[in-house]
Amino acid sequence: MTAAAAIYLALAAAFFAPADQHGARLVPLTIHSQAVWRKLGVSVVLPAKTKPRGRRPLLVFLHGRGGSDVTFASNEAVFEGVAQLGRKAPVIAFPDGGVHSYWHDRNDGAWGRYVSCDRGLPL
Question: Which three-class secondary structure state does DSSP give residue 21?
Fold first, then answer.
């Protein structure tokens, strides 16, 4: 039983440990989308060294089918890339696109509008 516990702890440390954020912050938001009529998560990565509010570039990263706002937002490679860009790093928003994540308008909502200009997104 002790060997199994040691293996579990080693795997947990390797695969479930939080990513080194390299000074950036991961901010989880919940928005009420007017375009798709529901509340959705948006994970936002704020670089460590940012320009004043309103003067930062914004990169919106769209996940694929079956993903969510946290699919890539907690990936250490994202934080490494942001750190390498330094003061030029954009704020990165990872919106949740629902189960299907087609990112175009369909029967269950105006997903194209949601990702491009939804007024519910407080960025």
Answer: coil
Question: CA–CA separation, 61 vs 92, rounded Å?
Answer: 7
**Cβ-contact 87, 54 below 8 angstroms:** no
SS3 59: strand
Structure tokens at 94: 């990872």
* Contact assessment for residue 96 and residue 44, using Cβ atoms and an 8 Å cutoff: no
Phi, psi dihedral angles at 76 (to 5 degrees): -60, -30
For the segment 18-71, what is each residue's pLDDT rounded down to a tens digit?
677 778 888 899 988 888 888 888 889 999 866 566 677 888 888 888 887 887
Token pair, residue 120, equals 């519910």
* 38-46 vs 91-95, strand pairing mode: antiparallel
The size of the chain, in residues, is 123
Supply the Cα-derived Rg of the chain in whole angstroms. 17
